Amino acid sequence: MEQSKDEKLGTEKLGKLIVSMALPAVAAQLINVLYNIVDRIYIGHIAGHGDMALTGVGVTFPIITIISAFSAFAGMGGAPIASIHLGKKDYEGAEKILGNSTSLLLLFSVVLTAFFMIFKTPILYAFGASDNIISYAQEYITIYLVGTVFVQLAIGLNTFISGQGNAKVAMLSVLIGAIINIVLDPIFIFLFDMGVKGAALATILSQAVSAVWVVRFLVSKKSIIRIRKKYLKLSKKIVGAIAAIGISPFIMQSTESLVTVVLNNGLQKYGGDLYVGTMSILMSVMQLIIVPIQGVSQGVQPIISYNFGAGKRDRVMGAFKRMLIICLAASMTLGISAIVGPEIFARMFTDKKELVDLTASVMPVYFFGITIFGIQMACQCAFIALGQAKLSLFAALLRKVILLVPLAIILPKYFGVSGIYYAEPIADIIAVFVTSVLFLTITRKFLRNCGNNDMMGKRKQ
Fold first, then answer.
1. What InterPro entries does this protein map onto (predicted)?
2. pTM (2 decimals)?
3. 3-class SS letters over the chain
4. What digits encode the pLDDT tens for the residues 226-266?
5. Average pLDDT over residues 76-105
């Protein structure tokens, strides 16, 4: 009799299993980032004012990141717990998590849309917009906010598909939306002459299709766990369990907004619009580097969670070691490529020579520390997969809030605008060292509870 998808997480050879889970997850992450990257590439090449439009849309990045962070709170907070329950064959418990996560995503959609619609203009100015670029930022984010519910459901619920071992289905849900976005972007931006409005419209329409795909799968018989009406009512205990894990990925993503705001304001103060433009490109290239690493870690995460719940310690450690090697190799390869070929990456987003030259000159410094970032990502993912929310939260806060933000404020006072670019590699290197030492020091302690951990407070019988 053929094993179900979730059972293979606990029995299939680790090497083969990781490839089957990680490759679709990497593909899904790369495809997902195309939503924003493709927009910026097209926008940056709008005749006459592409550089200003690109800078304006770049200022909206913190808002977009905050919206995605809330989807991560419910999705990445709930999916590992659901996987742990699947490892224990507790399908009802897994469906309760899925139902409550779905309700949280819908609730977040309403609140976020209303809040940002009302306060978008002062927020955009606070995030680094100037009078020269504010109109582009407003046009893009106004349309994007209309599709907040699609973003929440498409991103947040897709983790429950991969969490039950259906990595290929999760990849297809993202692929469908990305293809639609890539096709619609040039039509709306150039053919219909809609500019940044067209880019935003193409994005939300493609996200809508992805959301429909994901929800349709999760209510069908093809899904091991399904969205059921009776589990949509929010439970304080379940929401608390989701929050305990979800707060870490939420902070990981939401603090990107804080970082972007600090960097943009510093660049505006010490440099001007041109320097803010470099950050738009640097953040886009950063996504291209980090997203494959996130894909690997998210692909391996259900394997670790499932086997942790099933009490298979050797498989937990075996999966982590393989994930660490792959993530480090990826961060080194991609980081070095940005360091040695910065002009190639810069020209992807703009053809304005002044912006290309400035971006190419700062990129090698900015990405120096990212070469070892795979270690940080692997450890953070393992903390989440094992239900160690506080440790994962600390690791997330350390790099961005504790290190990067203060460095980005202090260093420019001594090194001028260059200090802002120095802050990133210094924060990356220190964070990797501290997180890896923390992981090695206490991993054995919480692995003793392998198979005895219940995320909703029930004791194992």
1. MATE_fam (IPR002528), MATE_MepA-like (IPR045070), MATE_MepA_subfamily (IPR051327), MdtK-like (IPR048279)
2. 0.74
3. CCCCHHHHHHHCCHHHHHHHHHHHHHHHHHHHHHHHHHHHHHHHCCCCCHHHHHHHHHHCHHHHHHHHHHHHHHHHHHHHHHHHHHHCCCHHHHHHHHHHHHHHHHHHHHHHHHHHHHHHHHHHHHCCCCCCCHHHHHHHHHHHHHCHHHHHHHHHHHHHHHCCCCHHHHHHHHHHHHHHHHHHHHHHHHHCCCCHHHHHHHHHHHHHHHHHHHHHHHCCCCCCCCCCHHHCCCCHHHHHHHHHHHHHHHHHHHHHHHHHHHHHHHHHHHCCHHHHHHHHHHHHHHHHHHHHHHHHHHHHHHHHHHHHHHCCHHHHHHHHHHHHHHHHHHHHHHHHHHHHCHHHHHHHHCCCHHHHHHHHHHHHHHCCHHHHHHHHHHHHHHHHHCCCHHHHHHHHHHHHHHHHHHHHHHCHHHHCCHHHHHHHHHHHHHHHHHHHHHHHHHHHHHHCCCCCCCCCCCCCC
4. 999 999 999 999 999 999 888 877 877 887 788 888 998 99
5. 92
